[in-house]
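Hi U.,

Before I forget, here's the chain from the pilot set. I'm dumping it here mostly so it's searchable later in email.
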Amino acid sequence: MDWTTYLSTLRNMIKNVTEGERFPFRIPRVLKYLFWVVTGLGTFVGLLYLWVAVSTASPAKAADKFLAEILSGDITEAYKLVSSSFSEEQTQERFVQELMALRPVHIELKSWKDRVLQRNGFSLLSGTLQTEAGETIPITVQMLNEDEDWKVLAMVDHARRSVGPGVWFEQVPVESEVRRLVEESLLAMNDAVQVDDFGDFSSIMPRAIRIPSKKSEIGRSFDKLVEQQVDYSDIVDRETVFTEPPYLFEQKVCAAFGGGCRSLGFELVVTGFYPRDGDRLEFTLMYMYDHPDWVLACGLERWCIVEVRS
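Structure:
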């Protein structure tokens, strides 16, 4: 066999191996349907995200302005940005008190991807707030479209999310408010001691704990003050001394036999005394939150004591 014939035969063999028999290829119909479904779904999701971004832009801008005024310390201007419902439920004075107790140093709203579509002129924005003490608190800012203008309806933490319009946080009140609470509670108790009427004093407490409170520490304190014929109404001219900073204490109820515990919320604990001539009035009082105020709550599980000591 000569080289020409050999090379021709080799080319034919390679051609037969590489080409083979060709078959027509057709995409199955179900894959076509799947392709269009996925494409349509992707387009829908993209348009939905765009809708959320556009529809929440105005309330988010108004909320950012409100937060910026708070952080700059211009509380008066911030209060001008709230809704009518807000100002009806929370006075500017209480607004200032809540912010003074909170002491925010940084507030940031989440991006449009984490927002909720506005409905019926209402928009819900979420974010985080950092306090001067370094605590980071998740917050919700509720915006309301009022007369074609977005106004702040509420700014709350998780614990106060359902209380209504205003700025509300689960926190220790400002010191001046704590002093007012203590003085009012002790003077109410003193008035009742003078007439030996514990029921009159317990009426300032929530109904649920009025009955057992007579058998509690506060009830025993009351009886002892009546026995001693003490009148400490002069505390109105004295300054409260806190033996420790007021703090929040979590009340829990636990099932028997290791069945677990359930939180009843946080309560305010205040411990201190009033210096008097020759003695001092010592106290430990507990308060529970009954929106929008803290109310005296001294019962069987709440260790409240009021006594005069030399």
